[in-house]
Amino acid sequence: MSGSSIENNQEIPESSAPPNFIRHFIEEDIQTGKYDGRVVTRFPPEPNGYLHIGHAKSICLNFGLSIDYHGACHLRFDDTNPEKEEVEYVESIEADVRWLGFDWKDHLYFTSDYFDKLYDYAVSLIQMGKAYVDSLSAEEIRRYRGTLTEPGKDSPYRNRSVDENLALFEKMKEGHFDEGACVLRAKINMAAPNMVMRDPALYRIRKASHHRTKDKWCIYPMYDFAHCLSDSIERITHSICTLEFENNRELYDWILDALNVYHPRQIEFARLNLSYTVLSKRKLIELVTNGHVTGWDDPRMPTISGLRRRGYTPESIRKFCERIGVAKRDSMVDLGLLEYMIREDLNKKAHRVMAVLNPLRVVIENYPEEQTEMLTAVNNPGEPDMGTRQLPFSKVLFIEQDDFMEEPPKKFFRLSPGREVRLRYAYFLTCTGVVKDDNGLVVELRCTYDPATRGGDAPDGRKVKSTIHWVSADHAIDAQVRLYENLFSSENPATEEDFKLCINENSVQALSGCKVEPSLATAMPGFQCQFERLGYFCVDTRDSTPGNPVFNRTVTLKDMWAKIKDR
Ligand code: ATP
Ligand code: MG
Questions:
Q1: Domains (ranges, CATH) in the chain?
Q2: Separation of 112 CA from ligand 2 center, angstroms?
């Protein structure tokens, strides 16, 4: 199927997606009519953990291709390992794929639904003399396997007759043998340069109950055997997987050819590696079970559920996956790129609100006692359609402790004794004095305001160098705020001897007694906003209760202390 002389059987749908080698292969197959122009991909998670951002790359890729080429994408649970708690994982995976915005329609499959078929395929291989029951121990099988530089040795059981193999395999299925007593192996070549081809195991005995097939089976197909045949059974056209399966392709080809069944095209791409992050399920499970995090959905976790709880949107994750693209070579993506994507998204969507994380009391001496006035604040300066809201202003305010210095260095332009600043959406404010506690700590500022500067502009044109945020003490709501940092202090934790030793001790800082503006009283769990000058935050979906919101910092602003421009 080479060259340009091939007739164009099928139209290739137009797409805005940038070309890449996977799309190139698919379009080639559409043009040559290899699969009658069909495009069917799949996302095949093993339900043994929660999905992470690496899986999102695969999901966006597979579902994205099926959408672009008007095909289908199957969600298939590769549940060949009987393990406990799989139901929880299955449910979380379905929820996460949906949340990312993808729909498998009625194409939901389980490898375990194919156990009967897979068993029949194994029997066929035995009948063809292409599989045998080996009674060597696991340890012996390892020793017989050879190394990259030395060929393996044939098992003494390799030449059992077809009838003997059929009888033994039947007995394996009937539960006559203990776990590990024997395995079914493909009869390929113990001297093959590709180690995968040295008579790989196809079936093993596991006396465990499966979350779907319960106790029907005590033999289970190996991943390699089940995977390629599941793709074949579902008539997948393009079986897209990560690079570590390149070596296995030869085995998949061998199995499908031996059985003379439908043959998908496998295409490998580089998995996602993200800096300051681990993306191996085994390691993520360790973090959860050893209590290094509060659960799979801890906002520091790179899981989809963790990112969701942290305040990431499906759009930002999809954009991220689109931006990183696909490659044939492993590389490390900067975590900063993911953060950039959520900032870009929230910049357009999130309401600006005022919140004071470390409150310092301000008393405005010339403001009338008992008076409250409402000031108009813009919800999103870049999006006029998002409207405005009313902010209460009164005699006693809170500002950020950081926004005041009694003895400021040269470059400090925020509040200090004698200095005038702008209160966002309110008035110019001048500090006239400080109140200290017994330890000499500043606990209150005495200030005056200029009533002529309502809204934040001086009629005489005088300027201030800084605008700070505030809340009205009587009207503010108490809140807890969690500031998150990277979970790991090493850029590539996976290369450390023990990845757990580089867990960042300061990955979460929990603040209580924070003060947020009253409009947040009705904010529902999941609500996202920008705390002006501080970053993007969302209301935690687990720990918030009505009237006692807990905010998670999704991401900082690019430059936290950039001066807010005059409106
Ligand atoms: P892990 O290595 O985290 O245990 P896995 O590959 O064992 O992951 P599966 O449930 O088998 O997890 O993965 C389902 C699909 O997601 C596979 O097709 C796999 O290639 C893909 N996938 C897993 N991790 C990544 C990643 N980091 N980048 C891209 N795709 C990934
Ligand atoms: Mg896997």
A1: 38-269 (3.40.50.620), 281-346+479-565 (2.40.240.10), 355-469 (2.40.240.10)
A2: 16
